[in-house]
Amino acid sequence: MLTKLLRILYIGSRGPLSVIPLVKLLDAGQSVCAIGVDTDNTTGPRDDRIPVTVEDPGSVEFLARRHGIPLIRLHGAWQLCADAITEYMPHVILVSCFARRLPDVVLSISTMGCFNLHPSLLPAYRGPLPLFWQFRDGCREFGVTVHQMTSRLDAGDIVGQTRLAMPDGVSGGQASVLLAEAGGDLLVHTLGALRSGKAAALSQDVRAASYQGYPLPGDYAVSANWSARRLYNFVCATRDHGLRYPCDVGGRLYWLSDVLSWQQATAPEPRISGDTLTIPCNPGSVVARMETA
């Protein structure tokens, strides 16, 4: 059993699911020996009168520079990346929100394993955008999982998991922050269990496993046969400027641009007022903003 802090090599990118867990680790006094990133995300605005690029505070590079932690660029030949990682002799590699699949030459470096923080309750919702699919399916219970990384994406043994409810009307960014906060706490707890030798690995039940890839345009279609809460929360979590949601209401196709409210009572029929549409759902009703000619 180790009595000293574990040497952690953290791999991530920009955004809350990478940044907030790293902040949690640093605030907890964990020993982060290096940070791996895919490319340089310091792509903020540049003033030609000042020969510096404005750093993006929503990236792990910003935290690395702020805390004096070495950065490793994980692009190009993986063997060279593995050689760079090996120099830091990490006990543990932690990954959160990193777009590239790590090969065995990297997964085998750390002495105690390589672990990924995934924003779903594995084995459900494996894949690159689990939040999108959970909102689309109308999930009421969300969560984060820490699992061992293997050559199979999101399929390694589970060493930690936390469940949380998601508030109605939450945006995708807000949902990511909530999961990142819970995930950071889970990482700190998992590291304590690893350090004390009390971490237990649980194999994923392949019968309960599901995988979803990147959404296609048709995956943004919504249905009046959904519950009002599901339709409302899906649009709130995925809406973006210019995005449209096709919805068949009573045999007529409407293009929704936003949702304004939902209620449990089911409206007797669709109702149009200006650019708003009241949609009878199953059950409940949604008031949505629609595109007009």
Topology overview:
Layout: E1 7-11, H1 16-27, E2 31-37, H2 60-67, E3 71-73, H3 78-86, E4 92-96, H4 104-107, E5 114-118, H5 130-136, E6 141-148, E7 158-165, H6 172-196, E8 222-223, H7 228-238, E9 245-249, E10 252-263, E11 271-273, E12 276-280, E13 285-290
Parallel strand pairs: 1-2, 1-4, 2-3, 4-5, 8-9
Antiparallel strand pairs: 5-6, 6-7, 9-10, 10-13, 11-12, 12-13
Helix pairs in contact: 1-6
Outline of the structure:
This protein is α/β, with parallel strands linked by helices.
Spans of at least 5 consecutive residues whose pLDDT stays below 50 are: 41-54
Which CATH-level-2 architecture of the largest domain?
A: 3-Layer(aba) Sandwich
Biggest sheet layout: 7 strands, mixed
Helical percent range? 25-40%
CATH class of the largest domain: Alpha Beta
Shape descriptor? elongated
Whole-number total of structural domains: 2
In total, how many beta strands?
13
How many whole angstroms does the radius of gyration measure?
22 Å
Sheet-strand content, in percent, reads 25-35%
* Strand order, largest beta sheet: 3-2-1-4-5-6-7
Following the backbone from N to C, one meets helices and strands in this order, namely EHEHEHEHEHEEHEHEEEEE
Tally of separate helices: 7
